[in-house]
Amino acid sequence: MRLVLLGPYPPPHGGVQTNLVAIRRYMRDSGFSCAVINLTRHRREEADEVYYPHSAAQVIGHLFRNRYDIIHLHIGGNLSFRLLALCFFCSLIPGSRTVLTFHSGGYPSSPEGRSARARSLRGWVLRRLDRVIAVNPAIVELFLRFGLPPHRVRLIPPYQRETAAEKLPEPLAGFYASHRPVLLTVGLFEPEYDLPLQIRVFEDVRRCLPDAGLAIIGSGTEERRVRECAARTSCAEHILLCGDVPHGATLSAIARADLLLRTTRYDGDSIAVREALQLGTPVIATDNGMRPEGVHLIPTGDGGALHRAIVELAGEKVGRAGERAAPAETADNRNLEAVLELYREVLG
Question: Domains in the chain, please, with CATH?
Answer without folding.
Answer: 2-159+333-347 (3.40.50.2000), 172-319 (3.40.50.2000)
